[in-house]
Specification:
Mean pLDDT: 85
Strand content: 5-15%
Radius of gyration: 28 Å
Helix content: 55-70%
Strand order of the largest sheet: 3-4-5-6
Number of domains: 3
Order of helices and strands: HHEHHHHHHHHHHHEHHHHHHHEEHEHE
Shape: elongated
Low-confidence stretches: none
Distance between the termini: 44 Å
Number of helices: 22
Structural class: mainly alpha
Largest sheet: 4 strands, mixed
């Protein structure tokens, strides 16, 4: 049996630690915002972030995936808490969802992710990039009504991705625009060849420099340009709960109610969280593998097991459900991470920040974080990627584009479902055109199977057989088909029965199934 835990290595600490700091700064406001959108205690979002960054990182099947509370589950969590009537009853459902995910891993359900077409995965990545850009533009100009980074088009505040941007045009802050613009300029310059040649630029990651610049700039505004200062009262700064002591910190934990085990509704909520969380994690895992510069292939069943253990731990401590999250994971990749050490650093910093540094972190402008995420969003959805998919032709571009549009205008799971339907259509279409060949030489006809055949090829087989004239001699060659579906055998049997009335002889060559004997 494979080892359950993979201990971190310090070999790439010079890249992993700065990347972990960047992911921590991106994840912190998201943890708080998702908890707010879920109708849960703010501290429960931080607990989920800590568990995702530490427990899951040790057990994960991926070196670069980062887990935490997922915006895609916020609406489900909100409804579940209301239905169950108590947050501690809800956390029991989170624990049970983890147990179910362990069962999924045991039966090797992670294989589901292997059946998602690459065009759909690339469409998902590009869509996440577009969503990040749409969601972060308001924060980049100082319009900070909420910061949950919701992946859904429709937001909990009754706004949507586009109306939020329009609202921000009448509610912008010059200070936020100055900070985000300067941060974006740094991020662009750091990619320029002349700066990459300088050794010190590899020691100071651009996203971390952007955050430091944001803090210093806002402090300068407070001294010399008060009208430009970004304020916590307007939701323009990170807002971390401040605790006075370790006992107060422990008092914020809300362990689950084990009496809820007898409640059938709790089991229903647990199954919903387990299914949706597992699908989101597998999709994120596939996407992160494609972003990984080293193109490592992660173990999906191990990832399910890690997510199960993470949800058990998060629920026991009073945290939200956790999944692998593509926004944090992509930020991790683009910050230069090499191994899971970066996720562990981010998780440890989340824990330390709550206990030790809330005052300092509450000075970080959200505009600086928005600039970092805007750069991540652009890399995921760059014009070069769009052109590359277009050049691959309609069978690749259409599922890609439909997935992108569906996710942007709905949410992650609905968009993937729509993209999968389009992808399946093109798979069926290509099978219809390439699965069989029919050639004629006088009265002799040859129907050759070029590949394995399933029920989706039945209509094409029938169409070709209808063209065979009376008194013909038909040879059906199955040499290249290792598998032929029972529906195809049934179609051939039906044709052979009718062929006797039309003086058509039928001969089978290289068929290994017994269905036609």
């Amino acid at each position: 049996m494979d080892s359950w835990i993979t201990w971190p290595t310090l070999k790439y600490a010079g890249r992993d630690i700065p990347a972990g700091i960047v992911v921590f700064l991106v994840a912190l406001p998201l943890c708080l915002g998702i908890a707010l959108a879920s109708g849960a205690p703010l501290f429960s979002g931080v607990i989920a972030g800590v568990v995702g960054g530490t427990v899951i990182a040790l057990f994960s099947g991926s070196e670069l995936s980062v887990s935490g509370p997922a915006a895609g589950l916020a609406v489900i969590v909100l409804g579940a808490i209301q239905e169950l009537g108590s947050f501690q009853v809800f956390t029991m459902a989170v624990v049970l969802s983890g147990v179910l995910q362990l069962a999924f891993a045991a039966v090797r359900a992670g294989v589901i992710g292997d059946y998602i077409p690459n065009s759909v995965i690339k469409g998902m990545l590009a869509a996440i990039g577009v969503v990040i850009i749409l969601k972060q533009l308001p924060h980049a100009v100082g319009h900070d009504k909420d910061f949950e980074g919701d992946e859904s088009f429709f937001q909990p505040d009754q706004m949507n991705s586009f109306t939020e941007i329009l609202a921000s045009l009448g509610d912008f802050s010059p200070g936020a625009i100055a900070i985000s613009s300067a941060a974006l300029a740094i991020l662009v310059l750091w990619e320029r060849p002349f700066l990459k040649k300088l050794s010190w630029t590899r020691l100071v990651p651009a996203p971390l420099l952007c955050v430091i610049l944001g803090i210093l700039a806002n402090e300068a505004f407070a001294l010399w340009m008060p009208a430009w200062q970004l304020l916590a009262s307007k939701g323009q700064l990170v807002q971390l709960p401040v605790v006075g002591s370790a006992s107060e910190l422990l008092g914020m934990l809300q362990p689950p109610s084990f009496a809820a085990l007898a409640n059938a509704k709790v089991w229903g909520v647990a199954a919903t969280i387990a299914l949706i969380g597992s699908i989101e994690s597998l999709l994120s895992l596939e996407a992160v593998d494609k972003l990984d510069p080293e193109k490592r292939i992660s173990d999906p069943n191990r990832e399910l097991r890690a997510q199960g253990l993470g949800n058990i731990a998060s629920g026991m401590l009073g945290g939200l459900p956790v999944t692998s999250v593509i926004v944090r994971s992509s930020a991790n990749v683009y910050a230069g991470a090499e191994t899971r050490l970066s996720s562990l650093v981010h998780g440890a910093l989340l824990l330390g920040a709550v206990a030790l540094l809330p005052g300092l972190l509450n000075r970080v402008p959200l505009a600086a974080l928005a600039a970092v995420l805007l750069a991540v969003g652009y890399k995921l959805a760059s014009f070069k990627i769009m052109v590359g998919m277009w050049e691959r032709g309609w069978p690749q571009f259409l599922p890609f584009f439909v997935t992108l549009a569906a996710i942007v205008l709905s949410d992650l799971l609905q968009g993937i479902a729509v993209g999968m339907l389009v992808g399946v259509f093109f798979v069926i279409r290509s099978n219809h055109h390439a699965a069989t060949t029919l050639v004629r030489d006088g009265d002799d006809w040859l129907l050759r199977f070029n590949k394995d055949l399933s029920f989706v090829n039945k209509a094409e087989i029938k169409r070709r057989l209808r063209t065979i004239p009376d008194r013909a001699r038909l040879i059906v060659d199955g040499t290249k088909a290792l598998y032929v579906d029972a529906d195809i055998y049934e179609t051939l049997r039906e044709f052979e029965t009718s062929a006797g009335f039309r003086s058509i002889s039928v001969e089978y060559h290289q068929f290994f199934g017994k269905e036609l004997e």
